[in-house]
Amino acid sequence: AQSVAQPEDQVNVAEGNPLTVKCTYSVSGNPYLFWYVQYPNRGLQFLLKYITGDNLVKGSYGFEAEFNKSQTSFHLKKPSALVSDSALYFCAVREAGNTGKLIFGQGTTLQVKP
Amino acid sequence: GAGVSQSPSNKVTEKGKDVELRCDPISGHTALYWYRQSLGQGLEFLIYFQGNSAPDKSGLPSDRFSAERTGGSVSTLTIQRTQQEDSAVYLCASSFLGSNNSPLHFGNGTRLTVT
């Protein structure tokens, strides 16, 4: 069965520093991976998705994700964090089959301090 | 057009009452999903619609939960005889299933509080 794991409940980083939010996955077949962000009292906003063949995927708000097949990872990165990036981040994998359902990780809270 | 719309945004109800939550997906999206997010928890899948049929209901927690979709558009999630453990944010998402990397687009959710 497809699954994703986000090993960190919270990541703290100073404004202006690079940030990484980790995600590892387990899939049978090709991985269809996504990152979402959730601000307080809002739904999930799509950030980016893995494109087959691209090891570095660029998304919204300056975020990017690095795909590593040998480590089965899809870490979210940003070169310079902003205080406004503070939010809850979810990694997700599409379930095999034809429902299109996404399986989400438990989420990582990113706290960017000025 | 507009994004996924959910109503109400907040609902407070007494234990034992029935509630209906509404989702209006993005126009043209044939797939519709309901998820539940409890405080401090991740997202729990409830049910998936393709058109008006629900081929995957595996996440509905009990027979008190049901959902329908009409006209391939609006969906309603109904919770009968609500319990305090039903308190959560209920999120709806829609998608165009043209390819495996089509993302889900989420609404802002309905925050349900059962007192």
Number of helices of chain A: 0
Oligomer state equals: heterodimer
Helix/strand-derived category of chain A reads mainly beta
- Strand percentage of chain A, roughly? over 45%
The tally of strands of chain A reads 12
Spans of chain A of at least 5 consecutive residues whose pLDDT stays below 50 are none
Most strands sheet of chain B: 7 strands, mixed
Shape by Cα distribution of chain A: globular
Q: Provide the residue-averaged pLDDT of chain B.
A: 93
The helix-strand sequence of chain B is EEEEEEEEEEE
Which geometry of chain B do the CA atoms define?
Answer: globular
Uncertain runs of chain B with pLDDT below 50, 5 residues or more?
none
| Chain pair with largest interface | A-B, 25 and 28 residues
Sheet with the most strands, sense and barrel status of chain A: 6 strands, mixed
C-alpha-based Rg of chain B, rounded: 13 Å
In percent, how helical is the residue content of chain A?
Answer: under 10%
Count of helical segments of chain B? Answer: 0
- In what range is the share of β-strand residues of chain B? over 45%
Order of H and E elements of chain A = EEEEEEEEEEEE
Number of strands of chain B: 11
Quick take:
Chain A has 114 residues and is mainly β. Chain A contains no helices and twelve strands. Chain B has strands at residues 5-7, 10-13, 19-24, 31-37, 43-50, 53-56, 65-69, 75-79, 88-95, 105-106, 110-114.
Topology:
The complex is a heterodimer of chains A (114) and B (115).
Chain A: E1 3-5, E2 10-14, E3 19-21, E4 24-26, E5 33-38, E6 44-49, E7 56-58, E8 64-68, E9 73-78, E10 87-94, E11 102-104, E12 108-113
Parallel strand pairs in A: 2-12
Antiparallel strand pairs in A: 1-4, 3-9, 5-6, 5-10, 7-8, 8-9, 10-11, 10-12
Chain B: E1 5-7, E2 10-13, E3 19-24, E4 31-37, E5 43-50, E6 53-56, E7 65-69, E8 75-79, E9 88-95, E10 105-106, E11 110-114
Parallel strand pairs in B: 2-11
Antiparallel strand pairs in B: 1-3, 3-8, 4-5, 4-9, 5-6, 7-8, 9-10, 9-11
